[in-house]
What does this fold into?
Amino acid sequence: MTTFVAIALAIAVAAPAGAQVPDHRLTFEDAMARALRAAPQMDAARAGHDAARALQRQALARPNPSVRFDLEPASELTWSLEQQLELGGKRGARARAAAADAEAARHVVVTESLTVRAAVRWRYAAAQAARAATQLATESTRLAAEIAATVSNKVRSGATPASDAQRAQVEVETARLAESIAAIDAEIATARLLALWGEPASGILEFDPIPDSLPPVPEPTEIEIRLARAPDLGTLAARAEAADRRVELARALRVPDLDLEAGVRTARASGDAGLVAGAAIPLPLFDRSAGLVAAASAERARAAAELAAATRERRLAVAEALGAMRRARALRTSSTTGVLPAARRAYDEIRLGYERGRFGYIDVLESRRAVVLAERGAIEGYLAHTAALADLEAMIGELR
It folds into this structure.
């Protein structure tokens, strides 16, 4: 998600354009439902789970019996039924390993679902931020034009130098350029969202407004509970369990299987018939499955190490996401409740004072830029908070 934060912040900070009328509204719930229905990674994960469950059923199957015919042209005809009996718990061990594989595949489905949900959350937030920044850019252009008109009147009356009018016109052109660039950035943000379910970008969409309050940062106890149930860690734990069961299966393979045979033998000359029976069992003289046991044990050790490493990295990533949420909350709170109201009051006072000759044009310009920076800070705070929340939910599950 690091790449997203850079891109999305750039989309939000650029001042998008225009007083354009939306064609229709796309809510967050609609976007989520569409993405989950159309996500190919979800189809792939579900197919993998279906395959694992099929293999789980297959693991319970017993060896098929065999029918055998022996014909000796001059004397006898024998037919018999042969059946292999698995000994040493092979079937049970095989079934337990397959069950662990199926559980791992189930966790993969949940993990992919969380990944899609996280992508929708931060791409939708990027589109919201781009639209909010569009409104900010439109307002900035309007105010720049108003200020330029005021400056021109003061230049004509001789109350301010002509250079101020030139500066004001530069600000107007700069605002218009930012508006044009931001319009493209807003289109990109929308296209990135629609790409989640394969819809081409067409027309103008309206999104949910940015909420006034942010979701709370989860408590440490909730984080610990959710970490214990994290689906991707569950995948690794299930794979470690499957590796353990394969060690059990490899050891069971050391025990030879018993082949039983029963049938009827008929003498061709006399027509006499009699029952025949037999049994065979391999002698484990050369192959005792030592390599299989060693390989399975090594795979078990690797799976356990991967789980331990992933758990450690996950705790660090969760801590970083929580820290990012707190920073973003502080930025948005400060911008919306502290900096922005004060900056607006200062701008209103300085602009009024400029019209009455108490302040210069530079004072007006700087005060207006302070308002814009505070408004952008509020947007950036929301976007960064949502990005961190999406990261967190992708790791530990959806938060309510």
Observations:
- The first strand starts at residue 24 and ends at 26.
- The chain is about 70% helix and 10% strand.
- Residues 142 and 249 are 75 Å apart (CA to CA).
- Residues 1-19 have pLDDT under 50 and may be disordered.
